[in-house]
Amino acid sequence: MSVKPASVKPASVKPASVKPDQIVVTDALKIYGGKTAEVTALSHVDLTVERGQFVSIIGPSGCGKSTLLRLIAGLEKADSGEVSVFGADPDRACAAKMIGFVPQVPALLPWLSVVGNVTLPSKVNRRADALRRTLPGHVQRDAADPRALLAKIGLGDALDRLPHQLSGGMQQRVAIARAFAIQADVLLMDEPFSALDEFTREAIQVQLLELWEQMRTTVVFVTHSVSEAVVLSDRVVVMSARPGRIEAVIDIDLPRPRRQGLLESAAVHEYEDLIRARLQTAWASGPVTA
Amino acid sequence: MSNPVVENAGTTDAALPADAIDTAVVTGATASATSLRRRAPGRSVFRPTVWVPAVVALLVAGVLWEIIAINNTYLLPRLGMIGQAIITQPAFYLENAGVTLSEALIGLLIGFAAAFIVAVIVTESGVLRRAIMPLAVVLNVTPVVAIAPALVVAFGFGPGPKLIVTALITFFPILMNVITGLNSVSPPILQVFTTLRASRLEVLTRLRLPSSLPFVFAALKVVFPLSIVGAVVAEFSAPGAAKGLGTVISVASSNSRLAVVYAAILCLAIMGSILLFLVTLLEKRVLRWHESQLLTRR
Q1: Of A121, A223, A237, B294, which sits 20 to 30 A from A56 (CA to CA)?
Q2: pLDDT tens for residues B22-62?
Q3: Strand order of the sheet with strand A22-32?
Q4: Closest Cα to residue B248, out of B264, B234, B233?
Q5: In the prediction, which pLDDT does A101 show?
Q6: Of A137, A148, A152, nearest to A218 (Cα)?
Q7: H or E stretch including B84?
Q8: How far apart are CA B283 and CA B293, in angstroms?
Q9: How far apart are CA B242 and CA B254, in angstroms?
Q10: Which residues from chain A sit within 8 angstroms of residue B288, using beta carbons?
């Protein structure tokens, strides 16, 4: 069990472009609002995610965890600092369809069937395949069969249904399958299970892990649930608010595959307590001037 | 999804007499009953609870009409006389209805195509939106009825002015609804498309256009009846020279032949109801995904 404060990281970071096997956020600063009501969403944040890792970002609301995710997704630009997704900037990474985004709500197209929704990403931006091959950070894999993918996640008998005929949990599983389907190099998930009830949530976590263990993509997962972070992740990034910053990075050293039985163990609770303690410290330390 | 914007259709009601409104009510009830039957087999048009209220309302309206008509023949013709007018020369009404209907539909098609194209342009380009929208609004607040005589002067008694008036009158409701529809895309879906770097054309065809369909149908329900209003108004402005139910009404009323006037109005009402019914049927087919979503109300 290793805990390292974020501030210990060396200040000099190599240019992001030479690291095709990492997602690197360097000294990211993001400020919202005008001069009168400034909110520092991210205050000089550094983050490194290794390829193949499952990394969760956790923190109280307003700590900038979703902002950090959106920076990596190229949905927002940092005011200063750099973001590199496997050696490419987020714009190029998106253009090459290296990023699969799973928003908080399933965001399915209501007029398309389950299969239609999952195959949609492969139908838009067809030039991405050519661009992918030119980027060193992309790992070429055979396209996933959407039907097999849906079967794996337990939707094999719902292929032709429309989204409104599915429960919330099923809809979110379709959204996850949709993100996996393009063989993206990284999946960015923004609290995808926050709207689900406890039982659905646990079931879907297990399914996500099974799928991830087979596909071995990199996942950056934003959550506000401590247990969810521990159960899923190789590494948990604890953030604190006002200004948004990284409080601690905690490696979760639990054996995989993680099945429900294992997760009752004392080690899990130890990690949970550790993360909670870190969140408490972050809370107690209060506002820090950026 | 928010409720589609519906333009004020007050003119439609104002232009139709009492029995026309009755007909519309009956057709409306039949339409909703049909849709219910498709989803829930227990409900049927043939169930008394479905058709009795409509029939009773129709009968009451008919009786009231007759009471007024018996004592004031200069005000309203007897229902029997209207029926007789149609029965004695059905071909006459059918032919004129055909003329008006084709004017209305072709005009509507022109208006629809123009409005749709403008809506797409306006939602895709901020500069063009600021240029075009004021013009469209000015066009909307100008009473099209007032333009009709000028158009007859300019384009003569042929179908030209009728198509233009119909297109103009249907343009704005379609424009506003389609603009709202094209913009009614939820941000998370747009984010997914953005991270895939879908092109603007792909976002338009795969996301915005399908999203606009519920609003398109809301607009169609308004403008189908409105297109008949447009055609009739244009015919009023160019009477005597061409065919069409508007011309029939205009000529017959100048000769005080009330039965013929109301027979033509009845034809218009039936035409409008059938169009509305067909649009509703089409909507049920196309918007299955949307209708059912409304039913579950998440």
Answers
A1: A121
A2: 333 333 333 333 344 344 444 566 777 778 888 999 999 99
A3: A39-50, A22-32, A80-85
A4: B264
A5: 92
A6: A137
A7: helix B79-88
A8: 14
A9: 16
A10: 162
Locus of tokens 């294992």: A262
CB-CB contact of B214 with B181 (8 Å) = yes
B64 touches chain A (CB under 8 A): no
Exposed/middle/buried for B58, CB within 10 Å: 0-12, 13-18, 19+? middle
Q: How many CB atoms are closer than 10 A to CB B247? A: 22
On whether any CB of chain A is under 8 Å from the CB of B294, the answer is no
User: Confidence class of residue A20 from pLDDT cuts 50, 70 and 90?
Assistant: confident
What domains are defined for chain B?
A: 81-296 (1.10.3720.10)
Q: Where are the beta strands (DSSP E) in chain A?
A: 3-5, 22-32, 39-50, 54-58, 80-85, 99-102, 186-190, 218-223, 235-240, 245-251
Is the C-alpha dihedral spanning A28, A33, A35, A41 positive or negative? Answer: negative
Q: Assess whether pLDDT exceeds 60 at residue B298.
A: no
Q: Which two tokens stand for residue A61?
A: 């609301």
Q: Poorest-confidence range of A13-27, A53-67, A198-212, B45-59?
A: A13-27
Q: Which of B54, B30, B172, B158 is nearest to B99 (CA)?
A: B158
**Which of B192, B199, B290 has the CB atom closest to A103's CB atom?**
B192
ipTM for this model:
0.84
Give B-chain residues touching A95 at CB under 8 angstroms: 197
Q: Give the integer Cα–Cα distance in Å for B226 and B221.
A: 9
Residue of A17, A71, A79 whose CA lies nearest to A47: A71
Q: What is the DSSP pairing of strand A235-240 with strand A54-58?
A: parallel
Instruction: For the full predicted model, state whether its pTM sits above 0.90.
Output: no
DSSP percent split of chain A into helix, strand, coil, nearest 5: 40, 25, 40
The helix/strand count (H/E) of chain B reads as 14, 0
Please give the backbone phi and psi of residue A86, each rounded to the nearest 5 degrees, phi first.
Answer: 50, 45
Tell me the C-alpha distance between A247 and B216, whole Å: 51
Cross-chain Cβ contact A105/B197 below 8 Å: no
Distance between CA A37 and CA B50 in Å, rounded? 59
Alpha-carbon distance B216 to nearest alpha carbon in chain A (angstroms): 15
Q: Could you give the strand order of the β-sheet that contains A235-240, starting from the edge strand earlier in sequence?
A: A3-5, A245-251, A235-240, A54-58, A218-223, A186-190, A99-102
Helices (H) and strands (E) in chain A, counts: 9, 10
Following DSSP, what letter does each residue of B245-286 receive, concatenated? HHHHHHHHHHTT-HHHHHHHHHHHHHHHHHHHHHHHHHHHHH
